[in-house]
Amino acid sequence: MIRPLRQGAINTFAHRRNEVPCSDIDGVPIDGLVARHGSPLFITSENRLRHNVRTIRRALERHHPAVVHAWSYKTNITAAICRILHQEGSWAEVVSRSEYEKARLLGVPGNRIVFNGPYKPRAILERAIAEGALIHLDHLDELNLIEAIAREQNRVAPVALRLNFNTGITEPWSRFGFNLENGQATEAAVRIRLSPHMNLNGLHSHIGTFILDPRAFGEQVRLMTDFMRELEQEDNTRIAYLDIGGGFPSRNGLQGVQSPPEQAVPELDEFAEAVGKALKKGLSDRPGPPPVLIFESGRAVVDDAQSLVTTVVGTKRLVDGRRGIILDAGINLMLTALWYNHPVRLVHPKGGIPEETVLYGPLCMNIDSMRQLVSLPPLELGDRLVFSPVGAYNNTQWLQFIELRPPIILVTPQGGDEVIRQGETLTSLCEHERMPPHLDTSPGEWQPPVR
Ligand SMILES: Cc1ncc(COP(=O)(O)O)c(C=O)c1O
Questions:
Q1: pLDDT tens figures, 191-205
Q2: Which residues contact 78 (CB under 8 A, 6 or more apart)?
Q3: Which of 204, 336, 352, 392 is the most exposed place for a label (fewest CB within 10 A)?
């Protein structure tokens, strides 16, 4: 067989990042972590997580006096990760009943929970209203329900309006909240003003995710502050906070957009500056204290704080000549492989000519590929690879499908390693299943069907 050896082409930026090994996380050797906890393994860096949230908050604080980060639980809901961010002063941003309840379990007071999302069932709304949560209205039926609950509780519920609009820079997301351009948002604000049981306290919008153009955030803030000024012309309306949602990118490689990611993602300071400048302009002659700026960054905070270590379990040559590698981690663990080209590195440097390689997961399913094409040196059974960043949306969107989900560990600032989520077992896999009595026979009693 003649085997084409393709030296992975040098990219636009003239370097191949995959060749720089990644043998430790914050100085803790990956080999030791795998020896103790197995492969595949999610490894979280506590240092990096704390550093990231501080860096983004400080960048915004350079432009605005009152800034709050609300941690988006759906980005990564692992309790220890949420706890670290709450220790750093982050509030919780939740979008469901169970997320709200988890934030309360973790000790977050109701008035530090931002409650977003299109479906908030009555029971949890009753609790959230009683506990003073920041409830962001998504549609009119929800507005009516909240008003009814507040009337029953004999309270005035502080609420915020979620807005959607066209920045002209990003694809508009119109399915959440009230539209600004067609007057829906104004109508909802009037409806709140006329109600004795609601008080319009804030404005919210989330213009999308992994936004690469800082000007989009400037435009978002301009539209929000303009609307705020319009509303505040009424005597009894005073907006206490503006929530700009999430959307800052991480340093991952969006498929079809970036290669390699580092150079294509603007610096965080550029995003903060766009937000800051627009805020300054929008609030210039507004009397009284400025509104608090809430931001709900998910991926920019956690993505690069987590890595996924995986081991080569098989090698093959595909019919078109490309090399295929089978790993013990698949898209059941890293669903984001569907839209990212995650940077992947070897734990130990390897010699040999790099060639274009397809990285498959262990699932008996055709779409299970972790990287479609990446230039790597020859790999053997037992070699280890590290995917990173993987901290955003994988530990929440992962699937129990074919394989069990592995543990998540935390590398602590002291160099220790702690399990923050145990790996699944057959027992945990089956614990929600029930056998109806007529099927509850031991295998010995099994009879073949009568023909
Ligand atoms: C309302 C809201 N806030 C925050 C986030 C976090 O977004 P990101 O991870 O892009 O920062 C999301 C994610 O979709 C969201 O829907």
A1: 999 999 999 999 999
A2: 44, 395, 408, 420, 421
A3: 352
